[in-house]
Design a protein that fits this description.
The protein is an all-beta fold. 0% of the residues lie in helices and 50% in strands. Strands 2, 4, 5, 6, 9, 10 and 11 form a 7-stranded mixed β-sheet that branches. The protein is globular.
Length: 121
């Protein structure tokens, strides 16, 4: 079992910034890849950013150049710095953890409860 607790969501104007944080805790699970997904109202979740166990990062095309994922391996914590936010970034953001080195699976892996991000125009 893995527990993931997100923080840092909120309301921001378009063009603004937010920083999301997620702390993972586990007694048995081997945490390798960590990352973020989001869900817009009425749609399926989509992967936003992944930080692999090897230190590589991957982003959805819609956030490239605006979002940056980082990680503190010693604390099993992952961050998402979101700059130049747009109204279409409004969604619930979820933190995830996987025992896979490279990928996060929306169905198979562990996900937190989510934090709301709202971007006003």
């Amino acid at each position: 079992q893995v527990q993931l607790v997100e923080s840092g969501g909120g309301l921001v104007q378009a063009g603004g910034s937010l920083r999301l944080s997620c702390a993972a805790s586990t007694s048995r699970f081997s945490i390798n890849a960590m990352g973020w997904c989001r869900q817009h109202p009425g749609t399926q979740r989509e992967l936003v950013a992944v930080f692999t166990s090897g230190g590589n990062t991957k982003y959805a095309d819609s956030v490239k150049g605006r979002f940056t994922i980082s990680r503190d391996n010693a604390k099993n914590t992952v961050f998402l710095q979101m700059n130049n936010l747009k109204p279409e970034d409004t969604a619930v953001y979820y933190c995830g953890a996987s025992d896979d080195d490279y990928e996060l699976n929306l169905e198979r892996d562990y996900w937190g409860q989510g934090t709301q991000v709202t971007v006003s125009s």
